[in-house]
Specification:
Number of strands of chain C: 15
Number of domains of chain A: 1
Order of helices and strands of chain C: EHEHEHEHEHEHEHEEHEEHEEEHEH
Number of domains of chain C: 2
Oligomer: heterotrimer
Strand content of chain A: 15-25%
Radius of gyration of chain A: 13 Å
CATH class of the largest domain in chain C: Alpha Beta
Structural class of chain A: alpha+beta
Chains: A alpha+beta, B alpha/beta, C alpha/beta
CATH architecture of the largest domain in chain C: 3-Layer(aba) Sandwich
Mean pLDDT of chain A: 93
Largest sheet of chain A: 2 strands, antiparallel
Helix content of chain A: 10-25%
CATH topology of the largest domain in chain C: Rossmann fold
CATH class of chain A: Alpha Beta
CATH architecture of chain A: 2-Layer Sandwich
Largest sheet of chain C: 7 strands, mixed
Number of helices of chain A: 2
Low-confidence stretches of chain C: none
Chain lengths: 77, 248, 353
């Protein structure tokens, strides 16, 4: 079996307290791993964005580019 | 492990007052990143407008002036004439720049004032609650155009970039948007190129950013991005209208 | 320096340059255009910048920017142009920036005329712009005093971080008199550590602003402004008075009209009348206390102006009902004559009015 090409892996950190739950990052994520966490309400009163499956993150920073509130930090592992 | 994206020191830690999904936040960040990356943050003096960005002086981590409605280019002129070695920019909305401040922006451009302007066009007055702007599209509803903008009654929306591009003193004019990561990258490139025009002493530069106002458009933030692409871009085409090589 | 013969408008420019002003933003309007013309010619010679703005509104906002950036800066205009500048003046006062604004007054209201007048007394002393603010208003009566007040005006502006207005009429702008550029009294001027010149990564950002959205903050800001205005009232009143301890009638007049009043007073003295003069040099802060020195036997105060009686209110405030206050004024570019004033004084003497 051929070895799969090593995939770029990333990690995103959300500063959930300042998220306004606008969802622009959700739409921007090419691997569809961001969602608004309906079980949580942050200090501002919004459902903050969160990542469901960090293993799939490719560190593309699309979410951070679209975030109007500079909530997101992106690292390449 | 490398950091691919983190907050620029061009922004303060103050949380913005903007509504959820308002693209002002994206553009603030791009301006702040450009200031930092071009090495001019510590010598920058910004001028905030009246409108939604009225509090921009709290968000940019550099010296700031808060100007009267529409007067930012005149205020910036005063600053730049006193401090030609500093980097001077204005950040203005469409009511501010394209309505009450048309004389100031046209003449700052005409003089070739060595300042840079970021122009937010979201086709509406946001801060005052969704009134018709000079940039409101024909047929678009606003609180002072409840039946939609009627061309016979108040004309067509004004195209600022096309107008300013006709002025010799304006050396850089580009219209961008921030509706996708790709557009955000292009917008930042334009802002940096615009800023370089000032840094190199070539003259006036402006970047018009088509932006959203989900609150006053009555749409969700993601719906607003689509509405902008479907309705604003056809009337306000994206692209560069002018850069220094072309005029020299 | 030897005395030189200068036209009032040009003398303002020479005095401003002497005071270290290197930035002038203006817009043409009669009867003050010799001043921007002078600055356009002279400022480049001393490394300064003259810029003709697209409007008075733009000019005053350029002043706002330049003053915030730490420069000694000025603008000038005449009545309708000063009306247009009110927005910027209010912002400058609110943001506490020093600058000099010259108003060479002409007739009003509206487009009025280009002839001399004093019809902007209310606008200058009561604030033509919005909000609780004050301008220091200086009203010279001759060209030497004009240059002295321009030079000192910049220092007053810097000391208190407040806009200062020179309020002259068309006559003083156009008349030629010998002048000498003199140093004003030494003042301790605070450093402009609030100015925007880039943080250079050594300090927090400086912000030039008049917006305070929180009620408590705006109230505190206004209280601070009022404390500053109180200090100005205590320290900066300027007034000339003549024979008020003995006069039967006291004339109150400012600017060039005070000179006509003086001519009338000397004529009246020759005829045996005892007439005094109070000439406010600062219209704000107003020299209210000077009126306390008027003798108790005084029959009344005659205010003489080139308007319909705008200073009368201040005179009434000053005399607190102790003396009747009369008025004589001409408008439209008509100038009160000594004979008119003499006639009015005699009527007050005779109890005819």
């Amino acid at each position: 079996m051929a070895q799969a090409k090593p995939k770029i892996r990333g990690r995103v950190t959300f500063n959930e307290d300042i998220c306004k739950g606008c969802g622009l990052c959700v739409q921007a994520c090419p691997v569809n791993i961001i969602t608004l966490d309906n079980s949580k309400i942050n200090a501002k009163g919004y459902h903050p964005a969160t990542v469901t499956d960090m293993d799939k993150c490719i560190a593309c920073a699309s979410c951070a580019l679209m975030c109007p509130d500079v909530v997101i930090t992106v690292e390449r592992l | 492990m490398t950091i691919v994206f983190q907050k620029t020191r061009g922004l303060t830690d103050v949380e913005t007052h903007y509504c959820p999904g308002c693209t002002h936040g994206i553009v603030h960040r791009l301006v702040a990143e450009a200031l930092e990356e071009l090495g001019v943050l510590d010598m920058a003096i910004g001028v905030a407008p009246v409108g939604c960005a009225v509090l921009a002086y709290k968000y940019f981590n550099c010296d700031m002036h808060e100007a009267a409605h529409g007067r930012a280019p005149a205020v910036a002129t005063g600053i730049k004439r006193v401090r030609p070695e500093n980097f001077v920019f204005t950040y203005q909305g469409d009511g501010d720049l394209a309505s009450i401040g048309t004389a100031e922006i046209v003449h700052a451009a005409h003089r070739g004032e060595k300042i840079s302007t970021i122009f937010i066009n979201n086709a509406i007055y946001g801060m005052t609650g969704g009134q018709m702007a000079p940039t409101t599209l024909v047929g678009q509803k606003a609180t002072t155009a409840p039946y939609g903008r009627d061309e016979a009654h108040c004309g067509k929306p004004i195209r600022i970039s096309e107008m300013l591009a006709t002025i010799d003193g304006a050396k850089f004019v580009e219209r961008v948007t921030v509706t996708s990561p790709a557009h955000v990258r292009k917008a930042k490139k334009a802002i940096k190129e615009c800023f370089k025009v000032q840094i190199e002493g070539k003259g006036f530069g402006i970047v018009e950013v088509l932006s959203t106002c989900p609150t006053n458009w009555g749409l969700t933030p993601t719906e607003a991005l689509k509405w902008l692409e479907d309705n604003m871009i056809p009337y306000y085409p994206l692209g560069n209208f002018k850069r220094p090589e072309e005029v020299e | 320096m030897a005395k030189v013969l200068m036209k009032g408008n040009e003398a303002i420019g020479a005095a401003a340059i002497e005071a270290g002003c290197r930035y002038f933003f203006g817009y043409p309007i009669t009867p003050q255009s010799e001043l921007p013309e002078y600055m356009a010619r002279e400022l480049p010679k001393v490394g300064g910048v003259f810029l003709q703005a697209e409007s008075e509104i733009a000019a005053i906002n350029m002043v706002y920017g330049a003053a915030g950036a730490g420069a000694r800066v000025m603008t000038s205009s005449s009545s309708p142009g000063i009306s247009l500048k009110q927005e910027g003046i209010s912002y400058i006062a609110g943001a506490e920036l020093p600058c000099l604004i010259v108003n060479i007054m002409r007739g009003g209201p509206g487009l009025g005329s280009i002839l001399p007048s004093q019809t902007d007394y209310f606008q200058a002393t009561r604030g033509g712009g919005n909000g609780d603010y004050r301008l220091v208003v200086l009203a010279p009566s001759n060209v030497q005093e004009l240059v002295d007040l321009v030079i000192e005006g910049f220092d007053i502006a810097d000391q208190y971080r407040n806009p200062v207005m020179i309020l002259g009429d068309g006559m003083i702008g156009q008349m030629m008199e010998p002048v000498e550029l003199r140093k004003p009294k030494q003042r301790e001027l605070p450093p402009k550590d609030w100015a925007t010149d880039g943080t250079k990564d050594k300090r927090k950002p400086n912000i030039i602003n008049s917006l305070y959205l929180a009620a408590e903050e705006l109230e505190a800001h206004n209280q601070r402004l009022q404390e500053k205005y109180k200090k100005i009232m205590e320290n900066e009143v300027k007034v000339e008075s003549y024979n008020i301890e003995d006069a039967d009638v006291v004339i109150a007049a400012y600017g060039t009209i005070s000179r006509i009043a003086k001519t009338a007073i000397s004529q009246l003295e020759k005829e045996g009348y005892k007439v005094g003069l109070i000439r406010p040099i600062t219209l704000w802060p107003y020299p209210y206390d000077e009126f306390e020195k008027i003798n108790d036997k005084c029959k009344g105060i005659l205010t003489v102006e080139m308007n319909t009686g705008q200073m009368v209110d201040d005179v009434k405030i000053a005399v607190k009902g102790k003396f009747p206050v009369y008025f004589h004024g001409r408008t439209g570019g008509m100038v009160p004559t000594p004979d008119e004033i003499i006639d009015k004084v005699k009527k007050i003497y005779g109890g005819e009015i």
